[in-house]
Structure of Heterocyst frequency control protein PatD:
Amino acid sequence: MSLNCEKYQALANLLVQLRSDISAVQLDKSQLRQRVADLQQLFQQEIVPLATADSKEQSFRTEISKQLRLLEIDVTFLQGARQTATAQARLQTISDRLTTLIQYCHAILQQETPEVTED
């Protein structure tokens, strides 16, 4: 596995873990904010500097960046939610966004290692 693949796989693993934690346990909102900030930091420090000549990968990287920023906004909206129904809707939005981010990571990984297929 290439270094690039390892970094995208690490990001995907963290995204999957966060999505699982959101649905399985009641995360403290400040803890959720910190985990999202950690994801953003990992992306900025480990993935953005990676060299790529592939325009498709660059497009996915741009989308990941955008989705991470939107995820931060979603967490802010969650923190402002006063009613349980609103908080649940915000959590669903966050979970959906995490799923999208995971799909982007998997698309990059499949592009770099086309022989790997998911069932």
